[in-house]
C-alpha cells in the first residue's frame, strides 16, 4: 500500500526519483540528506522510500513517540530519544542497527538555516554501526530526488575523515542541487579553519 501511495504522491507532485547506486544499499545505511532547508524534503524522502519499499527511520524527540499520536510517528519511522538526558547517540544508533535493518535519516547541517559546516555525528554513527553512508538530495529546480550514491563502510573505515568529507562535498557540488530555500544552503560542508 505504501508503495502505491508513494508512487502516486510523487507523480501528483511532479517529482521523480533518480537512483545513483544499488537500491539494496538503502536497506541498511546512514542516509545523509542535504541540502536541508525545508520540511518538504522529509515528505519527499518518505514518499521516495515508500515507492521503493525500503525501510526508513528518523531520530526525533521522544515527546512525539510518547504522545497520543506516537503510534503514527513510530509507524512513519520515528525513533524517540530523550534529549534532556546526555545520550550516547552514536552507540544508541549502533544498537538500533544490531536489532534490524533500515536507513537512518541524518541531516548533518542540524538545522534548516545556513551553517558554516556540517556536524560529524553521521560519520561516527556509520563507523560504530558498520554501515555505509548513502547520499540523498532533493533538487527543487528539476523536481528530482537523487538517491543511492554510496560510500561503503570499508572505505569509511580505511580513509581519513577529511577524504570522506571531500567526497561528499564534491558530490553535492557536482550535482548542482537547488534546494527549496537556496539562501540557507552552504555547499562548503567542510568549513574553514576559523569555523
TrEMBL record:
Keywords assigned: Acyltransferase, Transferase
Involved pathway(s): Lipid metabolism
Top-level taxonomic group: Bacteria
A Pfam family: Acyltransferase
Molecular function, one GO term: 1-acylglycerol-3-phosphate O-acyltransferase activity
PANTHER family assigned to the protein according to its UniProt record, in alphabetical order: 1-ACYL-SN-GLYCEROL-3-PHOSPHATE ACYLTRANSFERASE, PHOSPHOLIPID_GLYCEROL ACYLTRANSFERASE DOMAIN-CONTAINING PROTEIN
Protein name: Glycerol acyltransferase
Amino acid at each position: 500500500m505504501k508503495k502505491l501511495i508513494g508512487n502516486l504522491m510523487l507523480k501528483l507532485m511532479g517529482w521523480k526519483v533518480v537512483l545513483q547506486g544499488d537500491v539494496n544499499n538503502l536497506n541498511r545505511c546512514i542516509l545523509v540528506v542535504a541540502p536541508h532547508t525545508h520540511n518538504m524534503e522529509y515528505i519527499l524522502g518518505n514518499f521516495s522510500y515508500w515507492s521503493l519499499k525500503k525501510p526508513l527511520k528518523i531520530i526525533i524527540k521522544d515527546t512525539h513517540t510518547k504522545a497520543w499520536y506516537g503510534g503514527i510517528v513510530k509507524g512513519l519511522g520515528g525513533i524517540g530519544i530523550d534529549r534532556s538526558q546526555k545520550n550516547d547517540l552514536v552507540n544508541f544508533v549502533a544498537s538500533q542497527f544490531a536489532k534490524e535493518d533500515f536507513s537512518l535519516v541524518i541531516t548533518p547541517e542540524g538545522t534548516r538555516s545556513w551553517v558554516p559546516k556540517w556536524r560529524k555525528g553521521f560519520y561516527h554513527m556509520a563507523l560504530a554501526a558498520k554501515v555505509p553512508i548513502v547520499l540523498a538530495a532533493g533538487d527543487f529546480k528539476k523536481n528530482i530526488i537523487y538517491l543511492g550514491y554510496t560510500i561503503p563502510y570499508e572505505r569509511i573505515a580505511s580513509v581519513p575523515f577529511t577524504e570522506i568529507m571531500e567526497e561528499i562535498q564534491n558530490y553535492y557540488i557536482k550535482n548542482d542541487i537547488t534546494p527549496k530555500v537556496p539562501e540557507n544552503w552552504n555547499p562548503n560542508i567542510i568549513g574553514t579553519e576559523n569555523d
